[in-house]
Design goal:
- α3 (59-81) runs antiparallel to α7.
- The radius of gyration is 32 Å and the shape is elongated.
- The longest helix is centred in the middle third of the chain and has 45 residues, at 352-396.
- Among the domains are: 38-210, no CATH class; 218-385.
- Strands 11, 12, 13, 14, 15, 16, 17 and 18 form an eight-stranded antiparallel sheet that branches. Strands 1, 10, 19, 20, 21 and 22 form a six-stranded mixed sheet that branches.
- The chain has helices spanning 4-13, 38-49, 59-81, 84-94, 96-102, 113-121, 131-152, 156-162, 164-169, 178-194, 198-208, 219-226, 334-350, 352-396, 446-457, 464-472, 576-586, 596-605; strands at residues 213-218, 228-240, 243-259, 266-284, 287-306, 309-312, 316-330, 403-408, 412-418, 440-445, 461-463, 497-501, 507-512, 515-527, 530-547, 550-555, 560-563, 613-615, 618-619, 629-638, 641-649, 666-667.
- With 680 residues, it is α+β, with helices and mostly antiparallel strands.
- The protein contains 18 helices and 22 strands.
């Protein structure tokens, strides 16, 4: 499983704000229209107009997709046959023979079985991101969806009923709930699978599926953090044409990074300007020449950033050297020494231009090589972390965003990502306005998280140890330790538990009115491999409160365990003993009035899954440490969007510091915006 903590660090590390206020009517109408967006009525009419066109999926289309899957499986077999024992192990893990049987023509098989095969291809195992495996995973996903549609919508009437959520979506005037959006996404995927009205599918996606992850970072913040002051000494000994030169060089200067306008990838140029002061002594036979040189240095290195990582272009450099001879001498004495000294004093100035030219070439080459070497080390480290902890794990789970664009302008670095698929929708509404004066801004819509969780966890079994491992990654290093094993009243170890998650919306977030609700849906909750509860969901609801440069998240004292179709507050009869046992394992009791000692004892006794937590200021590291700490200046959790804005502040100016009164966190106000991704 990929590193959630590092994924969170990526999400917190880059940000973008979209700000475009819409004109407001000065005098409201006495009766507001059913839908304030005029385009909705037209879109609704467009959906209604295709009812007569709806037809079940043609058998030849299913055949075509199945043949593509069979071809991909055959290529994977060829690939594995060349891999010896490793290939045999992969065949056994993937149950390749069973898959080949399941996709044979005329085989009658439950479509739900295909997700079990797909979960094997979309897992955490290194290697599944390679093309032969990924091709089978993609073809298997398309075939599974097509088979599901063909078996659940067998006639035109059934298809008409299935697209009703799309019509309902166009009539909604308020926020779209997670369930409403999910039903609409399934209807849209079905409509796309039938391929009867691609123009309608496009129109719906343009209106209801926007980018759901936005990042922004100011150039000044990045440039100041990446800038370096250069002050170093070096010693050089060289020999050329029987002339031995010993020199000491003191180089002073600085580097600064600037963004360059680039719409389809991030482009950053690092510029080094400096001066090298060199004192040298040259021995040519019996002659000794001392000199001082001043070299003006200029170097430039370009970095590009895209979804595949960071790349460095070859550095370029130039130099301008001025040599001043400070003395001439000889190793000989007497008249011979004087003759040698006189000859050296006449010949050395004649070679000054050549020496300066050679010094320029050497200085420029040395500077370019040093920039390339430094960039190579840093780029390799960045790419290794990015690939190992973000891109490759998401590719293996088929959860990497469909649209992922990094761009730069002269004053900002932006990332716009859209995580959706054929049966998923992105953000149905634009993000709230964010303050462009923040150094970094991050905006994530609940659909980004929900779609990713479905790709990763649909119909998977998650154990107690898995949950503890996942949640542990959100905590500081000093707190990352396994909880003590739970024991019953007799001191005996309590049985391990696991959850078989649902295929639809296994784990979801809902964000509204500064309340974040996390829901885990399970087909079965097991203890020691035996079902104790079936078709239940666990709901943890957190109230988010900004305070003194951080955000405090407090969970409702109750951890809710409900039937899948129930809501908080419904009167439902449940197995009380099993429910209490599950609550005990997932969310320890929260007491607001407990002492620190009681809290410490409780946290040691119970698993650390659903706790209160705090979004603290971010302590900057390495070169950025000189900028201080990233303090939360803006916060909003409403209408599906979670928005955080940070500014770098030194410790003496941080909110809550004793040297000045605390500064309140400014809550982001929702506002109408341009729907274009990444625009201002």
């Amino acid at each position: 499983m990929f590193r959630h903590k590092r994924l969170s660090a990526l999400v917190l590390g880059m940000t973008i704000a979209i700000t475009a206020p819409a004109a407001l009517a000065q005098t409201p109408a006495p009766t507001p229209p059913a839908n304030p967006r005029p385009a909705m009525a037209k879109l609704r009419q467009l959906i209604e107009s295709i009812r007569a066109k709806l037809r079940p999926i043609a058998p030849d289309r299913i055949t075509s997709v199945r043949e593509r899957l069979q071809t991909a499986v055959a290529r994977l077999e060829t690939y594995l046959n060349r891999s010896g024992q490793n290939g045999l192990d992969w065949r056994e893990y993937l149950a390749l023979e069973n898959l080949k049987t399941a996709i044979e023509p005329g085989v009658d098989i439950d479509p739900r079985v295909f997700i079990l095969f797909q979960n094997k291809f979309n897992a955490k195992h290194v290697g599944l991101e390679e093309r032969p495996f990924a091709d089978v995973a993609d073809a298997l996903r398309d075939y599974r969806h097509l088979v599901n549609v063909s078996t659940t919508a067998t006639d035109a009437k059934a298809l008409e009923q299935r697209i009703e959520p799309l019509i309902k979506l166009t009539t909604l005037t308020g926020p779209v709930s997670t369930d409403e959006l999910y039903q609409a996404s399934q209807a849209l995927g079905l409509l796309e699978a039938t391929d009867v009205a691609p123009e309608v599918v496009t129109a719906i996606r343009e209106e209801f599926s926007r980018p759901n992850l936005l990042f922004y970072a100011k150039e000044d913040f990045v440039a100041d953090g990446a800038s370096q002051v250069i002050d170093r000494w070096s010693v050089d000994n060289s020999c050329k044409k029987k002339t031995f030169v010993h020199s000491h060089t003191h180089t002073v200067g600085s580097t600064r990074s600037d963004f360059v306008e680039s719409p389809h990838q991030g482009l950053m140029k690092t510029i080094m300007r400096g001066t090298a002061f060199t004192s040298s002594t040259a021995h040519a036979g019996p002659a000794i020449v001392t000199a001082r040189a001043t070299t003006q240095l200029f170097g430039q290195l370009a970095l590009t950033i895209d979804e595949f990582g960071v790349k460095a272009k070859c550095a370029t450099a130039c130099a301008d050297t001025s040599i001043c001879f400070t003395g001439f001498g000889s190793t000989k004495r007497g008249i011979v020494g004087r003759v040698v000294t006189r000859i050296a004093s006449r010949q050395a100035p004649k070679q000054r231009a050549q020496n300066e030219h050679e010094a320029n070439i050497k200085a420029a080459q040395t500077l370019a090589e040093s920039l390339d070497k430094a960039a190579e080390t840093q780029v390799a480290k960045l790419n290794q972390n990015y690939l190992d902890n973000i891109r490759l794990p998401l590719v293996r789970y088929n959860a990497f965003p469909r649209h992922f664009n990094i761009s730069t302008t002269n004053d900002r670095l932006s990332l716009v990502a859209q995580n959706d698929s054929q049966f998923q929708l992105g953000a149905p509404n634009p993000p709230p306005v964010a303050d462009p004066y923040n150094d970094m801004i991050g905006q994530i819509h609940e659909t980004f998280f929900n779609n990713m969780m479905e790709s990763v966890f649909a119909r998977r079994e998650v154990t107690e140890d898995d949950i503890n491992e996942y949640t542990n990654r959100f905590r500081p290093a000093e707190e990352q330790k396994p909880p003590k094993p739970l024991v019953d009243e007799n001191g005996e170890p309590e049985p391990k538990w696991s959850i078989v998650l649902t295929e639809q919306n296994p784990i979801t977030l809902e964000v509204d009115n500064n309340v974040v609700t996390l829901t885990i849906r399970g087909l079965a909750f097991k203890q020691d491999g035996k079902n104790s509860l079936v078709n239940r969901k666990i709901v943890a609801r957190y109230t988010m409160t900004p305070e003194n440069g951080r955000v405090i998240a407090k969970r409702d004292q109750e951890l809710y365990v409900l039937p899948l179709d129930a809501k908080i507050g419904d009167n439902v009869g449940l197995a009380v003993a099993a429910i209490n046992q599950l609550k005990k394992r997932l969310g320890e009791p929260i007491k607001r009035d407990e002492t620190p000692e009681e809290k410490r004892e409780r946290e040691e006794k119970y698993p650390r899954v659903f706790r209160d937590f705090v979004l603290e200021p971010i302590e900057l590291k390495e070169g950025f440490a000189k900028l201080g700490t990233l303090v939360i200046h803006q916060f909003s959790a409403d209408d599906g969007w979670l928005t955080l804005g940070w500014r770098a502040e030194h410790p003496q100016s941080r909110p809550g510091h004793t040297s000045e009164p605390p500064k309140p966190v400014v809550a982001v106000q929702a506002g109408a915006q341009d729907n274009s991704a990444g625009g201002e």
